[in-house]
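Hey, can you fold this one?
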Amino acid sequence: MKILLFGITRDIIGEGSLMIAEKDSKGLNTVGELKAQLKKEYPELNDLSSLAVAVNQQYATDKESIKGSDEIALIPPVSGG
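Sure. Predicted structure:
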């Protein structure tokens, strides 16, 4: 599973993307489960006011199913005017 990182998520994790091996992605069946796992591994993600996720370039809810071949993007909160 490839996870693309943008903005502050890139800064927190220290890379532009993450790869989760198939064997390590077992038990990560939904967007919510993936977010919980990433927040456990990278506690600073818990400090974000929100964290949107896209699956295969479509915004996804926490209940959306994911699989190892999906491209996931973590989209942090943005501000501006």
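The mean pLDDT is 90. Let me know if you want another pass with a different chain boundary.
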